[in-house]
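quick q for whoever's on today - can somebody do inverse folding on this one?? i tried earlier but teh output was garbage lol. C-alpha cells:
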C-alpha cells in the first residue's frame, strides 16, 4: 500500500511538472496571471553548417531551446525553490566568502615603490654629456587615487554555453571598495573572428541602403573589450582586438566610436554592478560622447540631481544567472530637467519616480530597470528647431536613454532589436524626415551575435 501511494504521489508530481509549465505560460500569455521568474536568458547554440542535414539539426536545436526556456522560466515552484536555495546558501556562506575575498585581495596587493628623489645638483661630469645622449627628463602624470587600483581579484562563479561568470573584488586608491559581476565570452577565436566579419557586413548593408542620411555607430563596450580586462580577470583574454577589427571593417561613411569605460573605476561607476547595461550615470556619459560625435554644437543637458530608492534592490542579469543574492545594485536615477517634450507611449519622469518610491522591490523576479524605463518609440521636442530628426536602431540600452538623447533633436524614433523584423528602413526615414541614423548595440550582440537574436537581416532595406 505504501509503495502504491509513493508511486502515485511521484507520478502526480511529474504530471504537474510536465503540464504545469505550458499551463503557466499560457496563463501569462492570456493575461490571467503573472509568473514570477528569475529572468533567465537561454543562450543560443551555435548553428550547424556544412552538413547534409543542417535544416533538421537546427530545427532540433530550436526545439530544445524552446523547451529549455519553457521549463526553466515557467516550471511551477521554480522561482520559489531557486530563490530560497540561493538566499540560504548566501546566508550560510557569507562569513567564509567575506574572509576569502579579504585573503584574495591582500595577496594580490602590489606594493607601491617610492620614486627616487631628484638630485638638486648635477654630479661632476654630467654637464659634459653630449646633447644627443643626455637622458630625457620624463615627468609622469600622477595617478588619480580614484582610478588607482590597489588590489583586485576574481572568482569564477559559473559557466554557461557562451559565458563564464566571475565575481570581482576591487579596492581603489581613495579607499573605495566594491564587488561586481562580469563575464568572459566562451567562444573560440575562429568563431569570434568569423562572426565579427559577418556582423560588420550586415551593418554596412544597412548603412548603404540610404546614402542621404548621416550614419553613426556606437559600440556599447563590455569590460572584456578593454585593455585592462586581462589584469582584472587573470587567465581570460580581452576581446578588444575583435572590437577594433569590427570597427576597421565598417564602411568609411559610418562614423563610429566605442562607449568609454577606459578604467576599472569607469566600469564600476558607469555599468551596473550585477548587470551588463550602462547605469543611468553611464548612459549620461554616453549621451555626452554622442553629442561630441553627432552634434558637437549642442550643449548636453546637465546630469542633474540624483534620486535614490533605498527600499529597492536591482538584481541584474548576471546576479540572476549566478544567483548571487548577496550582491545587488542600489537603484539611482537623475533628474535631467529635460524641458518640454512628448513621447509615445506616454512616459513621465516625475510620475515614475513617485511610483517607484512607493514600491519595495527586493527580489530578483522584478527587473527594476525595465519597470522604471519601459520602451519608448518616439520623442518630440517641439521647441528645439534643429532641423534634424534621429532614428535610433538599438537594443535594450536604448530604454531610458532615448528621451535623453532626443533632447538634441526635433524628433527621435527608436527601434529596439526585438522589433527589427519587418522594419522598413527607408520607409521609416521618409515618414519621419530622418536626417541622422544612430546604430547602437551591446558588444556581445553586435560583435558576436551571442544570443542569436540580432535580427539585422530581418530589417527591410529594398
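ok took a stab at it. sequence:
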Amino acid at each position: 500500500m505504501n509503495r502504491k501511494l509513493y508511486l502515485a504521489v511521484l507520478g502526480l508530481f511529474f504530471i504537474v511538472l510536465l503540464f504545469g509549465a505550458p499551463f503557466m505560460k499560457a496563463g501569462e500569455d492570456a493575461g490571467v496571471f503573472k509568473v514570477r521568474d528569475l529572468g533567465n536568458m537561454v543562450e543560443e547554440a551555435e548553428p550547424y553548417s556544412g552538413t547534409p542535414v543542417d535544416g533538421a539539426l537546427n530545427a532540433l536545436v530550436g526545439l530544445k531551446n524552446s523547451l529549455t526556456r519553457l521549463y526553466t522560466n515557467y516550471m511551477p515552484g521554480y522561482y520559489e525553490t531557486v530563490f530560497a536555495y540561493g538566499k540560504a546558501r548566501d546566508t550560510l556562506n557569507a562569513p567564509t566568502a567575506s574572509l576569502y575575498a579579504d585573503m584574495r585581495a591582500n595577496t594580490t596587493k602590489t606594493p607601491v615603490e617610492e620614486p627616487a628623489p631628484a638630485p638638486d645638483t648635477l654630479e661632476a661630469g654630467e654637464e659634459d654629456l653630449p646633447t644627443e645622449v643626455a637622458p630625457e627628463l620624463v615627468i609622469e602624470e600622477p595617478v588619480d587615487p580614484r582610478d588607482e587600483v590597489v588590489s583586485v581579484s576574481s572568482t569564477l562563479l559559473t559557466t554557461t554555453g557562451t559565458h563564464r561568470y566571475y565575481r570581482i573584488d576591487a579596492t581603489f586608491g581613495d579607499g573605495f571598495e566594491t564587488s561586481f559581476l562580469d563575464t568572459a565570452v566562451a567562444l573560440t577565436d575562429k568563431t569570434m573572428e568569423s562572426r565579427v566579419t559577418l556582423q560588420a557586413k550586415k551593418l554596412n548593408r544597412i548603412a548603404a541602403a540610404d546614402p542621404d542620411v548621416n550614419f553613426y555607430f556606437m559600440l556599447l563596450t563590455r569590460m572584456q573589450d578593454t585593455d585592462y580586462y586581462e589584469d582584472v580577470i587573470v587567465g581570460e583574454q580581452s576581446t578588444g582586438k575583435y572590437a577594433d577589427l569590427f570597427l576597421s571593417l565598417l564602411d568609411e561613411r559610418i562614423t563610429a566610436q566605442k562607449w568609454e569605460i577606459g578604467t576599472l573605476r569607469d566600469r564600476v561607476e558607469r555599468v551596473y554592478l550585477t548587470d551588463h547595461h550602462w547605469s543611468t550615470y553611464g548612459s549620461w556619459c554616453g549621451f555626452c560622447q554622442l553629442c561630441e560625435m553627432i552634434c558637437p554644437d549642442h550643449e548636453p543637458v546637465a546630469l542633474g540631481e540624483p534620486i535614490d530608492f533605498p527600499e529597492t534592490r536591482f538584481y541584474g542579469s548576471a546576479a540572476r544567472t549566478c544567483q548571487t543574492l548577496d550582491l545587488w545594485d542600489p537603484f539611482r536615477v537623475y533628474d535631467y530637467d529635460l524641458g518640454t517634450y512628448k513621447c509615445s507611449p506616454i512616459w513621465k519622469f516625475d510620475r515614475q519616480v513617485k511610483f517607484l518610491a512607493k514600491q519595495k522591490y527586493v527580489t530578483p523576479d522584478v527587473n527594476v530597470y525595465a519597470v522604471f524605463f519601459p520602451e519608448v518609440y518616439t520623442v518630440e521636442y517641439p521647441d528645439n528647431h534643429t532641423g534634424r530628426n534621429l532614428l535610433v536602431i538599438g537594443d535594450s540600452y536604448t530604454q531610458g536613454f532615448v528621451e535623453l538623447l532626443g533632447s538634441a533633436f526635433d524628433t527621435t524614433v527608436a527601434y529596439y532589436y526585438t522589433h527589427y523584423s519587418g522594419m522598413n528602413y527607408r520607409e521609416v526615414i521618409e515618414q519621419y524626415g530622418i536626417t541622422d541614423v544612430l546604430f547602437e548595440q551591446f558588444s556581445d550582440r553586435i560583435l558576436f551575435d551571442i544570443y542569436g537574436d540580432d535580427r539585422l537581416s530581418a530589417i527591410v532595406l529594398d
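fwiw The chain has a mean pLDDT of 84. also The chain has 14 helices and twelve strands. so keep that in mind when u check it
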